[in-house]
Amino acid sequence: MGRCRTTHHSPVLAGRAIARGNQSRLAAQGTKDRTRTRNVTLPTDTVAMLRAHKLEQMQLRLQLGQGNIKPDTLVFSDVQGRPLNPHAVSRAWRRVCDARNLPRVSFHALRHTHVSLLINAGVDVLTVSRRIGHSKASMTLDVYGHLIRGGDEAAAKAIEGVLK
Length: 164
Known about the structure:
By secondary structure, the chain is mainly alpha-helical. The protein is 46% helix and 6% strand.
């Protein structure tokens, strides 16, 4: 697994989300948990894809005379380095789903898919909770607990092993 250490982590946007602000302009606004940011380990392939994306961004910007990427530029931004419009991202996601004959789920639903896949793979709830930014594992259990299967059988095997 790899860590993506890049200058794209803006101190201005750490712990913030992009949303429509005054006069329909995109702006950074606080997330539900304003007090902390979190580090998430990414698979090596994902880090490689992000680095390739950054290289493509830099090449395009240089071709268009935009100069290099600024340290506070988001990983996914327009050619001028501004945040992408959330509605445009949602539209692009719908086009991807349609082109690949995938169910039309919201872009945000990918977060839930990520959690479901982690739980299904047996990742412990505390790790999942930290990864998605829940302040307490109990919150993750409240929302996703129904996905945890086979716990009672595992408990029976564990106690059987202890009693032998």
